Amino acid sequence: MKKITLFAVLALAFGIFGFNNDANAQTSPVLYFCESYGSYGEIGISDRFTTGYLTVMVKADDPLGLSDVSIQFDKYNPSTKSFAYYKKFPYNVTPDMNYIYFSGDDLSFDTPGIYRVFLLDDSGNTVTSGLIEIISKY
């Protein structure tokens, strides 16, 4: 009986103090990856791909308010157990955009590994980021 009473008191306490029941792994904006983006939308969303060209997607609830941005790759080095700068690509977007895809000949993951990918504003500040694993095709 004591266990049921304690449970009821705890449940009531959580309800009274209004704990937020929303559990979000990441708030807006979100950066994620797909094989390609076209008239049918996003194709092949994942966080694990083989080497080659990919599309980086950014989705937010509200307009991002950005004009000049960059996508930057940092690659994980298992020897040092840290990420190091790999490459960076500049893009122009419009401030009203809240759903953007970045693709093209630039966004090639040439070697297998773990990458941290950033969307940076024109001052180099991180807007959002994501992790991706690239494996060998063969």
Beta-strand content bin: over 45%
Tell me roughly what share of residues is in helical segments.
10-25%
Number of helices in the DSSP assignment? 1
Supply the helix-strand structural class: mainly beta
* Unreliable spans: 8-14
Shape descriptor = globular
Task: Please tell me the overall pLDDT.
Answer: 85
Q: What profile does the largest beta sheet have?
A: 5 strands, mixed
Distance between the termini: 61 Å
> Any idea what the radius of gyration is?
20 Å
Strand order of the largest sheet: 4-12-11-7-8
Give the strand tally.
12
> SSE string, helix = H, strand = E?
HEEEEEEEEEEEE
Task: Describe the overall structure.
The chain is mainly β and 138 residues long. 11% of the residues lie in helices and 48% in strands. Strands 4-12-11-7-8 form a 5-stranded mixed sheet, with no helix packed on it. Strands 1-6-9 form a 3-stranded antiparallel sheet, with no helix packed on it. Strands 2-3 form a two-stranded antiparallel ribbon. Strand 2 and strand 3 (41-43) form a beta hairpin. The longest helix is centred in the N-terminal third of the chain and has 15 residues, at 2-16. Mean pLDDT is 85; it is low at 8-14.
